[in-house]
Amino acid sequence: MLARLNLRQDAREARKVARRAARLFSNRGSDAWATKAEAVALAAEVMNGSRRPALLDEAADIAGRLRTQGLVHDASAVLLQSARVAVRLDDLPTARGRVRGVRQRADAPLENRLLQHEVRAELSLAGGRRKDAMQHVRDGLASLHDWQSSFGSLDLQSSLVGHGRGLAVAGLRMAVEDGRPEVVFEWTERARALTSRVAAVRPPDDPDGAARLQELRELHAQIRAADAEGRPVVALVRKSSRLQQQIRERAWHDPGSGLVTEPTTLDQLQAQLGQQDGVMLVHVVTHGRLRLLVATGDDTRVLDLGDWAPVGRILDGLRADLDVSAAHLPPPLRQVVLDSLDDRLATLSRHLVAPAADLVGDDRPVLIVPTGRLAGTPWTMLPGLRGRPVTMPRSASLWVAHQHAPDHPRRRAAFVAGPRVERAAEEVRRAAAAWGERAAVVASADATAAHVTEAAHSADVMHVAAHGRHSADNPLFSGLELADGPWFGYDIDRLSAVPRTVVLSACELGRSTVRWGEETVGMTQAWLHAGACTVIASPASVDDDVACEVLAETHVRLAAGRAPAYALADATAALGLGARSSFMCFGAGW
User: Fold this and answer.
1) Burial of residue 28 (number of CB atoms within 10 Å: 0-12, 13-18, 19+)
2) Is 560 helix (H, G, I), strand (E, B) or coil?
3) Locate the CHAT domain: which residues (predicted)?
4) CA 368 distance to own-chain centroid
């Protein structure tokens, strides 16, 4: 099992582990398990790029033994992996024979079916049939989406994405090699943010699930109190971990919508961009090179931005600089941190934005379609985008869908001040003043999960000023700290009505965890998946003073009917805080 888990992350290590497992099983006389382990070792060698001719005979032998033991699905996977080796050796007749020899039964694992599509695409490409290869990738991703759509849990949907990673990479690679903007755009929509194509469904009312979340909140409060008093917390932490797992597994049983949407076309996107004089930026990384698709209402380009490695190195230290810059440091040390941050941001802007400066212009609103590799980038802080309305939707197709949705006036706003945030009360008071009688305020002492849930149900705009924490190991347990403990991503999923615009004045909650299929998951994604149109949040720690000033000014403009991305950009520019505010819009901010 360890070898299987390592297959797509570290094939070399997977092979070592599988071969060791095969020896251990063989020594115990467990022939079936030893053969299964050999099959995983062979798959790892193939996935590591092997072109060893002897693998063809070894695969035939392993597949034969697996069939004898009744393990037909394992045998099919081995034959398909060996067909990939035959393609690499230019032995296309053998590759075709092995693929034809695999008859997938109705109960075949999805992993096998996706592998078959992947191998067929490689075989078609090797035979010069690019169109057929792309269709095989489309068909494979459609199978993955059908499977995803049977689950209602965002956690489970995003976890499944890794199974289609090989197909997604193949589709993007072929699209980039094709070079036509409409093809590159189609595949960025088909092969990335795969959960965004699954229509969300509200989970059924579950009082027991709600009770478990409340119990977990109370446990977190007990752990915090015990920590403060120096009492041991090991037993409480273990109980919390068990309860988290129960909540997570319970959510896996929520039914899905069964609906998968088709991506929008580049023409449809350009029509919407043209109406608002906007520009879209889509970054794609294939084979270690970074490319940029740029689109306006009347122009499109695909630009080669060079090697990914320099950008990756900048990002490695960016988060630390962002977090430290939000702290109140002695002036000399603070200046060193700010100088480092400014240098990283300027270099990132040169790599990611400057090559398209003539299309990006000086004042156009910017739509950035995310890739997992660039998760956490503070786009609004880059010199090339500073002071501009910037929004980052889960996909371009969802952004277009929001443009066609009926307009929802902002009639009511709810404001929540969490505990132990120095300027939360002031921030909420100033922001709520912009809405006058349309505002409802929940003070820190009353900011319990029940009160916040009630406020969310009745608001068009919701603002929470609270401490927040992004949980990398399980992003839907990221939370806002309330008076009775954290309010989790799972709580958001249980809301029967969701505000159209959500403002999170909390550290880290614009962050996302990038899962093994490059799917990003976090608190902002939970809100968008639940039905929010726009989330204003920061991907880094936030200076309380900056948050208070920027967001209070943003609400003045939101209350006047300004689109969220414009409201945030205008407020940031008016205060002269462009290089200090990492707040940005997720979803359809304009």
Assistant:
1) exposed
2) coil
3) 345-574
4) 14
Topology of domain 403-587, per CATH? Rossmann fold (3.40.50)
Q: Residue ranges of the domains in the chain?
A: 2-197, 403-587
Residue with tokens 């997977």: 14
- The 8-class DSSP code of residue 518 comes to S
- Helix (H/G/I), strand (E/B), else coil: 27: helix
Q: What is the pTM of this model?
A: 0.89
In this structure, what token pair is assigned to residue 346? 């300027």
* 38: its two tokens: 């050999």
Report residue 413: phi and psi, to 5°. -125, 140
- 40 CB neighbour count, 10 Å cutoff: 25
In 287-336, which ranges are E strands? 289-295, 300-307
Question: The CATH number of 2-197 is which of 1.25.40, 1.10.8, 1.20.1740, 1.10.405?
Answer: 1.25.40
Residue 543: its pLDDT value, please? 81
SS3 annotation, 78-107: HHHHHHHHHHHCCCHHHHHHHHHCCCCCCC
Distance (Å, rounded) from C-alpha 167 to C-alpha 481?
Answer: 40
Tokens 């869908």, located at residue: 401
**Strands, E assignment, 311-405:** 366-369, 390-392
How far apart are alpha carbons 469 and 226 in whole angstroms?
A: 19
Beta strand 390-392 with 366-369 is parallel
SS3 182: helix
User: If you write DSSP's letter for every residue of 430-453 in order, what string do you get?
Assistant: HHHHTTGGGEEEE-GGG--HHHHH
What values do phi and psi take at 391, rounded to 5?
A: -140, 150
Decide if 528 contacts 195 (C-beta within 8 A).
no
Listed residue (355, 384, 318, 392) closest to 568, CA to CA: 392
Cα torsion 471, 475, 480, 486: sign: negative
Say which residues have a Cβ less than 8 Å from residue 231's Cβ, sequence separation at least 6.
none
Residues 6+ apart with CB under 8 A from 241: none
Residue 262 CB neighbour total at 10 angstroms: 10
Under-70 pLDDT residues of the chain: 507-520, 578-579
Phi, psi of 2 (to 5 degrees): -60, -40
Question: Sign of the CA dihedral 100, 106, 107, 112?
Answer: positive
**What does the pLDDT read at residue 520?**
67
How far is CA 315 from its chain centroid? 17
Q: What is the pLDDT of residue 370?
A: 80
- Backbone dihedral angles phi then psi of residue 415, each to the nearest 5 degrees: -130, 135
Query: Where does residue 414 fall: left (phi above 0), alpha (psi -120 to 50 degrees), or beta otherwise?
Result: beta
Kindly provide the b/e burial profile for residues 206-234, where b requires at least 16 CB atoms within 10 angstroms of the residue's own CB: eeebbebbbbbbebbbbbeebeeeeeeee
